[in-house]
Amino acid sequence: MAARAVPAPLAQLPNALTLFRFALVPLFVVLMLADDGRGSWGTAAVFALAGATDQVDGWLARRWRVESQFGKLADPLADRLMIDAAVILLWLDGRLPWPGLAVILVRDAGLVLAYPAVRGRGYDFEVNLIGKAATWVLYAGLVGLVASDAGTAWPLVLFWSGVALALVAAALYVRKAYREVRA
């Protein structure tokens, strides 16, 4: 691995952003519950901030060559928790149909449960471009759903587009893991 490109204190910024995203999860949940089923741009902004930190922390870690084992494990977990909280609360509010909830929760459970099994056999998940695009589109769709009232169609179109991309990315991860673990 190449030498770190920034001073030691600055090298901790990507992990600090991940920890910040963990802290945003309960704040987001409280705000969603307080919105009582109505759309809220303020709550959507908190969710969007979480999405932005998800993009920035990974980019900084790679650019500054400060990727860490903590970041590799905590970053996707923080992302899963925020997205899962959003889909559960949106489903409870009647703004997301149950198949959307089911697909996201099954996908995330599969990722969380499969990771230790394949990691122990030498497979290292590297996020591919389709996986990144899926996350961006899912975040955009969920921001729209959080901001809008029930019945608004455009965020659902984005959400389902993100789900489709996520399923393609998952299939590619499974195929890659199968090939690498089997070899």
Description:
The chain has 183 residues and is an all-alpha fold. It has a single domain (11-182), classed as Up-down Bundle (Four Helix Bundle (Hemerythrin (Met), subunit A)), CATH 1.20.120. 80% of the residues lie in helices and 0% in strands. It is built from seven helices and no strands. The chain has helices at 8-11, 13-35, 41-64, 69-92, 98-119, 129-147, 153-182. Helix 3 (41-64) runs antiparallel to helix 4, helix 3 (41-64) runs antiparallel to helix 6 and helix 6 runs antiparallel to helix 7. 27% of the residues are buried. The mean pLDDT is 88.
Concise structural overview:
The chain has helices spanning 8-11, 13-35, 41-64, 69-92, 98-119, 129-147, 153-182. With 183 residues, it is an all-alpha fold.
N- and C-termini, Cα separation: 24 Å
Topology order in helix (H) and strand (E) letters: HHHHHHH
* Unreliable segments of 5+ consecutive residues: none
- What is the tally of helical segments? 7
Portion in helices: over 70%
Shape type: globular
Number of domains: 1
Spell out the CATH superfamily: CDP-alcohol phosphotransferase transmembrane (TM) domain
Class from helix and strand fractions: mainly alpha
Strand portion? under 5%
Question: Main beta sheet: strand number and arrangement?
Answer: none
Determine and state the CATH class: Mainly Alpha
Looking at the structure, the CATH topology is: Four Helix Bundle (Hemerythrin (Met), subunit A)
Extended strand count: 0
